[in-house]
């Protein structure tokens, strides 16, 4: 059985790290006898927008929906196209139209990577952020009244549905059940955001009844961000709304020193639509074109894609190879952000060779 | 001229740290010849709620509006009263009815306090978070439809007004102008929250035109929280909406190791209504009643109150006394959270004596 992968490199360093992501996937595919077929698309980038006036062609949904997964680089180049246009016109379309309602991001302190937190060792930080990825604070409902006057008022709705909340909670509880510590933390702000967040809390209590073996706690988002810094070892699976999950899944990798190398998965768990795998980092216009971007985020995202396709062993082999190359610490191989003088290609090749 | 201060100790450790806050204020008042008169109120606590069925008496506004400032301890005791009731029934009423539209919190790495961030020294982290304190994400507009069914949907509006946004921005720009680095950072999320946040950005651009001497930048809230951890030295004055300011003003103090001792001011800059000064920490039911809570947050909040009343020198004297006692590091004096075996009273007394 051949798995068909749609490849969209996007903008900036997205186009540089993508070949290394594919190189690692091909190495793992060979090793574990997996048939992968890659199809590259030019759309979903700001250059495409400048040429066509939209980020995606009209029939993008038809073109992509038959693939087994989307492998995405990075999108956005504010000097060419404002972020809210490039992102709402591509990534956020995929997430919503393909009902990728789970955004999953590991936060793991890797060997050889220095945490900005004092005294933390690999093993101390190892948790997942599960983010609701289709509704909540990222709504398109609202508008402006009395525009251009002193009475100007702008309103935007946060929308939570029982379907939307329950399914992300279920996924998070299920994930917690696969982990040794069986612990779930809910991000809330029900003491301040007085309608949607108490509802979120209620659904957590309801869902928890079906998982008596999971230890559940909750923190308001303000103190939760503080606790990511003060007690990152407390966390195992952290579940949050679209916005809270977004914040926590940048802060978490930052605490592990891996913001430049963290991966993410945008998942439609039922497999009705393709899921999308992308590094957490953006297109980084400032270093684009130099061949010095760290490709680990892309490669690690490829590992998450293999796991999603059912190849856990192959996925683990990629992560192990990343850890090995990082802990060897060869400065000719590693890129500048992790203390070396190597290139995107040297690091990508070392990881592929290790697989 | 006598300044009349309304004192509301609230719940839990609020009642324990308040006497030390007053002790320090009285020491500074004596030293600098300031006439302060304290009037204590029992309402605004969960015990008051249990007795009276509401957090505040009906005429609280009349009772309090003539005071020059409110000195507040901490409110909330979830086992007695759910947080959203106790907080919306007290603190959030004060903020809104007294139009305390600025929430100001210093984030400063103090001598003798260990930062959870690796290798940071006093001097490295010294910035203010300016938070919009009356509108934005903390709205009471919204509701639930199809309750109890699978179609259940819950909606809450974020509401931003030009008045509300511009005045907090103006305050933040003015504050930046008093600082040596003259730098302002705006917290946004205009790439995801597509209506209110682009509006916030627009108003920042507009306001910046009136402050050509201020260096302005902006970050999306996700990467901004990451940068608090990775580059806390980048920041001078950080301005954010109600929710983003809330998050950043917990995370900032956490990064300086001072979440238990950070102060805050809820300010009505025009002085039409009294401003409110309170520690960042909550009522801490877990350690309440033991006399071991650190009173510095309350004392430092008192310093902010004096500064607000026009006594900058007296305020500085309190902060200097706090720094001195912390750097002396006498374990008989300091409370457990900062490495000592002392009590709320021993630490409060040492600071008052030093003033
Ligand atoms: C207690 C809560 C409602 C409050 C807030 O979110 O404003 C608190 O976190 C704060 O920052 O003062
Ligand atoms: C680019 C932006 C719209 C996006 C988000 O907020 O979802 C990004 O921060 C992410 O986390 O994937």
Descriptive terms for the model:
12 strands; 39% helix; Isopropylmalate Dehydrogenase; globular; alpha/beta; 355 residues; two-stranded antiparallel ribbon; binds 3-isopropylmalic acid; 12 helices; 2 domains; homodimer
* Spans of at least 5 consecutive residues with low confidence of chain A: none
Ions and ligands: 3-isopropylmalic acid
| Share of helix of chain A, binned | 25-40%
What does the main sheet of chain A amount to? 10 strands, mixed
Strand order of the largest sheet of chain A: 2-1-3-12-11-4-5-10-8-9
Please trace the helix and strand order of chain A, writing H or E for each element.
EHEHHEHHEEEEHEHEHEHEEHHH
Instruction: Determine the number of helices of chain A (DSSP H or I, runs of at least 4 residues).
Output: 12
Beta-strand portion of chain A reads 15-25%
What's the CATH class of the largest domain in chain A, please?
Alpha Beta
Structural class of chain A: alpha/beta
Protein name (chains A, B): D-malate dehydrogenase (decarboxylating)
GO molecular function (chains A, B): D-malate dehydrogenase (decarboxylating) (NAD+) activity; magnesium ion binding; NAD binding
Catalytic activity (chains A, B): (R)-malate + NAD(+) = pyruvate + CO2 + NADH
Keywords (chains A, B): Manganese, Metal-binding, NAD, Oxidoreductase
């Amino acid at each position: 059985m051949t798995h068909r992968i749609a490849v969209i490199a996007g903008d900036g360093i997205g186009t540089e790290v993508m070949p290394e992501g594919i190189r690692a996937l091909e190495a793992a595919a060979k090793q574990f006898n997996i048939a992968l077929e890659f199809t590259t698309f030019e759309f979903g980038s700001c250059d495409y927008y400048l040429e066509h006036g939209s980020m995606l062609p009209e029939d993008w949904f038809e073109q992509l929906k038959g693939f087994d997964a989307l492998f995405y680089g990075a999108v956005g180049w504010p000097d060419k196209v404002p972020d809210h246009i490039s992102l709402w016109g591509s990534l956020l379309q995929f997430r919503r139209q393909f009902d990728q309602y789970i955004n999953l991001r590991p936060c793991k302190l890797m060997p050889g990577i220095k945490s900005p937190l004092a005294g933390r060792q690999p093993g101390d930080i190892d948790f997942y952020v599960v983010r609701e990825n289709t509704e909540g604070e990222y709504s398109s409902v609202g508008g402006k009244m009395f525009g251009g006057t002193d009475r100007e008022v702008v309103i935007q709705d946060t929308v939570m549905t029982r379907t939307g909340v329950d399914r992300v909670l279920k996924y998070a509880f299920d994930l917690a059940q696969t982990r040794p510590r069986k612990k779930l933390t809910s991000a809330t702000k029900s003491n301040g955001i007085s309608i949607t967040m108490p509802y979120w809390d209620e659904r957590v209590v309801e869902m928890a009844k079906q998982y008596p073996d999971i230890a559940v706690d909750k923190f308001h988002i303000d103190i939760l961000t503080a606790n990511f810094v003060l007690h990152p070892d407390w966390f195992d699976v952290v579940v949050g709304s679209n916005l809270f999950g977004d914040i926590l899944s940048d802060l978490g990798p930052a605490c592990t020193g891996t913001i430049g190398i963290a991966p993410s998965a945008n998942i439609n768990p039922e497999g009705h639509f393709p899921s999308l795998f992308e590094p957490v980092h953006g297109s980084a216009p400032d270093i684009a074109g130099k061949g010095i971007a760290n490709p680990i985020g892309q490669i690690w995202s490829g590992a998450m894609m293999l796991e999603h396709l059912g190849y856990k062993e192959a996925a683990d082999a990629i992560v192990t190879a990343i850890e090995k190359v990082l802990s060897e610490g060869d400065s000719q191989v590693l890129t500048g952000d992790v203390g070396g003088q190597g290139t995107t290609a040297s690091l990508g090749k070392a990881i592929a060779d290790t697989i």
